[in-house]
Amino acid sequence: MSNVKLKHGTWVLVADGEKALFLKNRGDALHTDLDVVREVREENPPTRDQGTDRPGRFNDGPSAHRSAVGETDWHRVAKERFADEIAERLYKMAHRGDFEEIVLVAPPIVLGELRKKLHKEVSDRIVAEVTKTLTNHAIVDIEGILKGE
Prior knowledge:
149 residues, five-stranded mixed β-sheet, elongated, two-stranded antiparallel ribbon, 7 strands, alpha/beta
């Protein structure tokens, strides 16, 4: 269970590899009232639907030996690009002064990618991290989960 205290004006980013919700607490620490500021979606079908070519092969040198090249995980590549985009948006928002504090909510892999790409101006404002996938939950459910209910 999470138990995150959200002061008035604290932002919450709820993200996965395809969707991000930028939420702002219009309430206070006791009565959380998250409001959607922005929603970002990116279509990211499974790798099997993105790559149609067979993995390549290359020569190992002067011999007739050939080695296979591993198949690219296009789904994972798209998640990494999405983390880049979200990190850039957060930097611009922080630089403009849109938020003073932010809570990051994402699955472990996405949270790790995001952490690597965040600018210091954003990472200094992170007050909590929650490793959960909540992008498809209702806002009222997200509020309850963050409060530990």
